[in-house]
Amino acid sequence: MDEDVLGSSTGSSSKCSQICTKFSQTYQGLLDKTVPWKKIRWVFVFLLLIGFMARVVLAQGWYIVTYALGIYHLNLFIAFLTPKIDPALDFDADENGPELPTKANEEFRPFIRRLPEFKFWHSVTKSTIIGLICTFFECFNIPVFWPILVMYFITLFCITMKRQIRHMIKYKYLPFTHGKPKYQTHETGKSSK
């Protein structure tokens, strides 16, 4: 009798595992199909955020959820702007500090983000959907004086962005590719002639 109970629990556990695996594979397949559509993905997130804000404004509540979502998005944005290898921690053998390439024959080190664009988009989308779902539950509608939360958020945003901009200026990096010069290799230059 004990063997029957163990056998049925193992079978249901295996079935549940198969369903979860199938669901995660389908979800990952859908995510993989969205990779090339960068602008459409960000337009969707922008519309989702507008929908969330409309829900909060029209319902006159859920300010704590909005504040938590804003702090989380700020954290994601800072990780998106930060290089994966922090120059402040990357010291050479000598004590001159981090060395960035200054000549053409030195090592090329491209800007690699701590949080890649796709993961940034995915996290913002998931968190906004979770925040939107939370606005349908009254237990998350904690009464609070919302102007104080706005002031906290603005203060935190200014302090964090000031520190991030100082870091960018100190180590001379730009986290965006728009406006940067594009160089051609010798092979590319010859084939275009």
Automatic annotation (TrEMBL):
Keywords: Membrane, Transmembrane, Transmembrane helix. The chain crosses the membrane at residues 40-58, 64-82, 144-161. It is found in: Membrane. GO terms for cellular component: cytoplasm; membrane. The keyword Ribosomal protein does not apply. It is a multi-pass membrane protein. It comes from the Eukaryota. InterPro entries: Rer1 (IPR004932). The keyword Transmembrane applies. Its main location: membrane. Involved in the retrieval of endoplasmic reticulum membrane proteins from the early Golgi compartment. PANTHER family: PROTEIN RER1. Belongs to the RER1 family. This is Protein RER1. It comes from Hypothenemus hampei.
